[in-house]
Write a structure and sequence with these properties.
The structure is a homodimer. By secondary structure, chain A is α/β, with parallel strands linked by helices. Helix content of chain A is 39%, strand content 24%. In chain A, a hairpin with a 4-residue loop joins strand 2 and strand 3. In chain A, helix 4 (166-175) packs antiparallel against helix 7. The radius of gyration of chain A is 21 Å and the shape is globular. Chain A starts with a strand and ends with a helix. The relative contact order of chain A is 0.14. The mean pLDDT of chain A is 95.
């Protein structure tokens, strides 16, 4: 059996995921839970990590590498942002050692962009994982989710990026807003989605008034709840595509995200003639943390 | 002392407002509370109305006229939509008598538009109040709020209308979303508002990526919480103005809404050279209910 080499952790706003790794980058064991930053006080992080490591029987001398919001100012221990453009091997080199723990714990920095102002924490590690698998990658990466990132990558570096709050907006409109009365939790219509993407691409300025129309169609028209939900998604993703046009206009796009969400983006890409491919976000996160660990070993002789 | 002639009620999603009126349209007494439709079962409406009328000592034979969501399918008693274009005196003529109450209660219908699909319940009564004061009014009416309405009025009729969920979106972004960490409840900057309106008007397609930038400016820039809040408002109102351009492009605009909110729209109007004026929404509601009551008297000899 392989020997534990290090522990990789993705510690986000809402979730915690941990992988026990061997030296070759194979996952030996893993665990996860809903104890994200938003539920924790800074003094809670050490205990939560320890409980999870003990549960999996990880020895006290095994180093831990963490990415995500645990490194935010309001997280466990601030890992100051790198500034784009930046090489991605800097993530491992600039990782911050956490002082108030018995373990050897390092947190990777996020990346900021000064103008236009932007920040990321976690996505940079997934892109680093992409580079671990494809060292010569050059092009646009889209990471759809709560805050979807569009990132230009070249020369082993992040050049610049944009963020659209598409996932958070979809959750608000479909679960909380007046439109939520018109949505089913699981229903879907590919046709309604495609039509809405087309409408938003053709006239993006109409989207603010087309959102309420989803509700009105439900009250007085023939629209099903499944169509309403798909239409909302299509309007928001279409609007995002127009806002991020320079990122995909002359580029292939590599998606990193949840498979179902990536499929939606691939459908939309097909409508506008973008060649896209999807990579699994968990695999990219693990690869990015492995890459950072290897760099740290070279840098600090851990 | 004047004698009570009828009772006017604006019964919306979140609030209930009641005015005791004399025959000349003067308000003799009033009350209000948070018992809107969203908190009530259909069987609760009769009791809530009775409690409020008893509190004010209104005799059992005084007729009651209601506008708003109490007439929705999920409200007290459905008052089916009129279809735009429609004359506004039809509100009084088509009011629905409520069966399951000891009182003489009528609920005014809302208005629907078939294509593009749209609905309103409550705003039509305010516009009717505007016509009560200005019988020859012709032009565009904007009713800013949770769901801002833009309405074309001519020949004592509502011709067509659009809805933008600007107020509901502002509440979501400023109180719930990740941007809420960057907002103060009361802070404001006229300059930041004006700049954001200008940006949204100049490049409305950029708004989806500029929303998250408000958060990023807070984390890495010099922006104050007051500027962040005003910037969010300016982006959303600017985006709404672009979406509703046909309603204001060649028209003066009459605003009906809360005074502070109307002031914001007037500031934005000034930036794009629209002549606007603001009317108080409560006064317009009362006048609209009075107008409907008078029509009912002529129609039904109440």
């Amino acid at each position: 059996m392989s020997q534990t080499s290090f522990v990789a952790v993705d510690w986000g706003t809402s979730s915690f995921r941990l992988w026990v790794m061997d030296a070759s980058g194979e996952v030996l064991n893993s665990t996860q839970g809903p104890f994200g930053m938003s539920r924790l006080k800074p003094t809670d992080f050490s205990r939560v990590l320890e409980e999870n490591l003990n549960k999996l029987g990880v020895d006290a001398d095994v180093p831990v590498v963490i990415c995500g919001m645990a490194g935010a100012a309001q997280g466990w221990c601030e890992a100051p942002y790198l500034t784009a453009p930046t090489r991605l091997d800097a993530l491992g080199k600039c990782a911050v050692a956490v002082a108030n723990t018995m373990r050897h714990v390092r947190i990777l920095p996020g990346i900021k962009q000064l103008s236009p102002a932007n920040v990321m924490r976690g996505e940079e590690t997934q892109i680093s994982g992409l580079l671990h698998h494809h060292p010569d990658f050059s092009g646009t990466v889209c990471l759809p989710g709560t805050h979807t990132k569009w990132v230009r990558v070249a020369d082993k570096s992040i050049l610049d990026f944009e963020t659209c709050m598409t996932g958070e907006q979809f959750a608000f409109f479909s679960e909380t807003s007046v439109l939520s009365h018109s949505m089913t939790v699981e229903g879907w219509s590919d046709t309604a989605f495609a039509n809405a993407v087309a409408v938003a691409l053709d006239d993006p300025t109409s989207v603010p008034r087309l959102l309420f129309a989803i509700r009105a169609e439900m009250l007085i028209g023939e629209q099903s709840a499944a169509e309403a939900r798909a239409r909302l998604s299509g309007l928001l993703i279409g609007q995002e595509l127009v806002a991020t046009r320079p990122y995909w206009d002359q580029e292939n796009v590599t998606l990193i995200g949840a498979p179902k969400l990536c499929d939606l983006y691939l459908q939309a890409f097909e409508q506008i003639g973008i060649a896209g491919r999807a990579m699994d976000s968990e695999a990219m996160t693990v690869a990015g943390l492995l890459f950072a660990y290897q760099i740290q070993q070279e840098t600090h002789h851990v």
